[in-house]
Amino acid sequence: MFDDLRDLYQEVILDHGRKPRNFRHPAGANREARGDNPMCGDKLIVYLTVTDDGRIDDAAFLGKGCAISTASASLMTELVRGKTVEAARALFHQFHELCTHDTPAAPSDDTPVDHDALDRLQVLSGVRQYPVRVKCATLPWHAMAAALDGGPSATTET
Protein backbone atom coordinates (compact mmCIF):
# COMPACT_ATOMS: atom_id res chain seq x y z
CA MET A 1 0.00 0.00 0.00
CA PHE A 2 2.71 2.49 1.00
CA ASP A 3 4.74 1.72 -2.13
CA ASP A 4 1.66 2.30 -4.32
CA LEU A 5 1.05 5.66 -2.66
CA ARG A 6 4.70 6.66 -3.04
CA ASP A 7 4.59 5.68 -6.72
CA LEU A 8 1.44 7.76 -7.22
CA TYR A 9 3.07 10.76 -5.53
CA GLN A 10 6.16 10.42 -7.71
CA GLU A 11 3.93 10.21 -10.78
CA VAL A 12 2.13 13.44 -9.86
CA ILE A 13 5.40 15.27 -9.20
CA LEU A 14 6.88 14.06 -12.49
CA ASP A 15 3.73 15.04 -14.40
CA HIS A 16 3.70 18.58 -13.00
CA GLY A 17 7.48 18.79 -13.37
CA ARG A 18 7.42 17.80 -17.05
CA LYS A 19 4.19 19.57 -18.00
CA PRO A 20 3.78 22.44 -15.56
CA ARG A 21 0.43 24.16 -15.44
CA ASN A 22 0.28 27.96 -15.70
CA PHE A 23 3.84 28.23 -17.02
CA ARG A 24 3.45 31.68 -18.57
CA HIS A 25 3.58 35.42 -17.95
CA PRO A 26 -0.02 36.63 -17.75
CA ALA A 27 -0.60 39.99 -19.41
CA GLY A 28 -2.71 41.35 -16.55
CA ALA A 29 -0.42 40.40 -13.67
CA ASN A 30 -0.21 43.21 -11.12
CA ARG A 31 2.09 41.52 -8.61
CA GLU A 32 5.23 39.50 -9.07
CA ALA A 33 8.26 38.29 -7.17
CA ARG A 34 11.38 36.36 -8.02
CA GLY A 35 12.34 33.23 -6.14
CA ASP A 36 15.92 32.04 -5.89
CA ASN A 37 17.34 28.91 -4.30
CA PRO A 38 21.12 29.44 -4.49
CA MET A 39 21.71 25.96 -3.04
CA CYS A 40 20.52 24.15 -6.16
CA GLY A 41 20.02 26.91 -8.72
CA ASP A 42 16.20 27.00 -8.87
CA LYS A 43 15.03 30.39 -10.12
CA LEU A 44 11.49 31.43 -10.87
CA ILE A 45 9.14 34.38 -11.06
CA VAL A 46 5.62 34.12 -9.67
CA TYR A 47 2.99 36.32 -11.31
CA LEU A 48 -0.33 37.14 -9.65
CA THR A 49 -3.36 39.09 -10.74
CA VAL A 50 -5.04 40.32 -7.56
CA THR A 51 -8.42 42.03 -7.83
CA ASP A 52 -9.38 45.19 -5.94
CA ASP A 53 -11.40 43.10 -3.51
CA GLY A 54 -8.37 40.95 -2.61
CA ARG A 55 -9.00 37.83 -4.67
CA ILE A 56 -6.33 36.09 -6.75
CA ASP A 57 -7.82 36.09 -10.23
CA ASP A 58 -4.80 34.49 -11.92
CA ALA A 59 -1.52 32.89 -10.89
CA ALA A 60 1.34 31.76 -13.08
CA PHE A 61 5.10 31.32 -13.08
CA LEU A 62 8.16 31.17 -15.28
CA GLY A 63 11.60 29.90 -14.51
CA LYS A 64 13.87 26.94 -14.31
CA GLY A 65 14.29 24.47 -11.52
CA CYS A 66 14.22 20.88 -10.42
CA ALA A 67 11.12 18.70 -10.76
CA ILE A 68 10.10 19.37 -7.16
CA SER A 69 10.20 23.17 -7.39
CA THR A 70 8.48 23.12 -10.79
CA ALA A 71 5.78 20.72 -9.58
CA SER A 72 5.26 22.79 -6.44
CA ALA A 73 4.89 26.00 -8.48
CA SER A 74 2.51 24.27 -10.86
CA LEU A 75 0.31 22.94 -8.05
CA MET A 76 0.46 26.26 -6.20
CA THR A 77 -0.77 28.26 -9.20
CA GLU A 78 -3.69 25.88 -9.60
CA LEU A 79 -4.63 26.01 -5.93
CA VAL A 80 -4.38 29.73 -5.15
CA ARG A 81 -6.40 30.90 -8.15
CA GLY A 82 -9.77 32.14 -6.95
CA LYS A 83 -8.69 32.35 -3.30
CA THR A 84 -8.55 35.49 -1.23
CA VAL A 85 -5.11 36.85 -0.39
CA GLU A 86 -5.69 35.79 3.23
CA ALA A 87 -6.65 32.24 2.21
CA ALA A 88 -3.54 31.98 -0.01
CA ARG A 89 -1.32 33.12 2.86
CA ALA A 90 -2.97 30.58 5.17
CA LEU A 91 -2.43 27.82 2.61
CA PHE A 92 1.25 28.82 2.31
CA HIS A 93 1.73 28.49 6.09
CA GLN A 94 -0.13 25.19 6.21
CA PHE A 95 1.89 23.84 3.27
CA HIS A 96 5.12 24.94 4.96
CA GLU A 97 4.07 23.05 8.10
CA LEU A 98 3.26 19.99 5.96
CA CYS A 99 6.77 20.07 4.46
CA THR A 100 8.68 20.71 7.67
CA HIS A 101 6.89 18.84 10.47
CA ASP A 102 5.85 15.22 10.88
CA THR A 103 2.87 16.49 12.83
CA PRO A 104 1.89 19.91 11.48
CA ALA A 105 0.63 22.42 14.02
CA ALA A 106 -3.12 22.87 14.07
CA PRO A 107 -4.18 26.19 12.55
CA SER A 108 -5.75 28.76 14.84
CA ASP A 109 -9.53 28.81 15.03
CA ASP A 110 -9.85 31.82 12.71
CA THR A 111 -7.49 30.47 10.02
CA PRO A 112 -9.28 29.00 7.02
CA VAL A 113 -8.22 25.46 6.13
CA ASP A 114 -8.64 24.18 2.59
CA HIS A 115 -8.53 20.44 3.20
CA ASP A 116 -8.88 19.61 -0.51
CA ALA A 117 -5.85 21.76 -1.36
CA LEU A 118 -3.80 20.24 1.46
CA ASP A 119 -4.75 16.76 0.25
CA ARG A 120 -3.43 17.65 -3.22
CA LEU A 121 -0.24 19.10 -1.72
CA GLN A 122 0.37 15.92 0.27
CA VAL A 123 2.36 14.63 -2.73
CA LEU A 124 5.16 17.03 -1.74
CA SER A 125 5.19 16.19 1.98
CA GLY A 126 7.91 13.59 1.53
CA VAL A 127 10.47 16.37 1.16
CA ARG A 128 10.54 16.78 4.94
CA GLN A 129 12.76 13.67 5.00
CA TYR A 130 15.29 15.60 2.89
CA PRO A 131 15.79 19.10 4.36
CA VAL A 132 17.58 20.41 1.27
CA ARG A 133 14.53 19.48 -0.85
CA VAL A 134 12.18 21.39 1.48
CA LYS A 135 13.68 24.55 0.01
CA CYS A 136 12.87 23.32 -3.50
CA ALA A 137 9.23 22.64 -2.61
CA THR A 138 8.66 25.86 -0.68
CA LEU A 139 10.50 28.30 -2.98
CA PRO A 140 7.48 29.08 -5.20
CA TRP A 141 5.34 29.63 -2.11
CA HIS A 142 7.88 32.05 -0.62
CA ALA A 143 7.89 33.93 -3.94
CA MET A 144 4.07 34.00 -3.93
CA ALA A 145 4.07 35.40 -0.39
CA ALA A 146 6.62 38.04 -1.41
CA ALA A 147 4.44 38.99 -4.39
CA LEU A 148 1.42 39.33 -2.10
CA ASP A 149 3.47 41.54 0.23
CA GLY A 150 4.67 43.69 -2.68
CA GLY A 151 8.26 42.55 -2.35
CA PRO A 152 10.46 42.00 -5.37
CA SER A 153 12.00 38.69 -4.36
CA ALA A 154 12.29 35.77 -1.98
CA THR A 155 15.13 33.42 -1.29
CA THR A 156 15.38 30.11 0.50
CA GLU A 157 18.37 31.45 2.43
CA THR A 158 16.40 33.79 4.71
Q: Provide the low-confidence segments as ranges.
A: none
Terminal CA distance: 38 Å
- How large is the count of helical segments? 5
> How do the strands line up in the largest sheet?
3-2-1-4
Order of helices and strands, N to C? HEEEHHHHE
Structural class: alpha+beta
Major β-sheet profile: 4 strands, mixed
Percentage of residues in DSSP E strands: 15-25%
Tell me the number of strands: 4
Helical fraction equals 40-55%
Radius of gyration: 15 Å
The CATH topology is what? Answer: Sufe protein. Chain: A
The CATH class is identified as: Alpha Beta
How would you describe the shape?
globular
Mean pLDDT: 89
Structurally, how many domains make up the residues?
1
In CATH terms, what is the architecture?
A: Alpha-Beta Complex
List the keywords.
5 helices; single chain; four-stranded mixed sheet; 4 strands; 158 residues; Sufe protein. Chain: A; alpha+beta; 18% strand
Description:
- A four-stranded mixed beta sheet has the order 3-2-1-4.
- The chain has 158 residues and is α+β, with helices and mostly antiparallel strands.
- The mean pLDDT is 89.
- Helix 2 packs parallel to helix 5 (131-149).
- It has one domain (2-155): Sufe protein. Chain: A, CATH 3.90.1010.
- The chain has helices at 2-18, 67-80, 85-100, 115-121, 131-149, and strands at residues 31-37, 42-50, 56-64, 153-155.
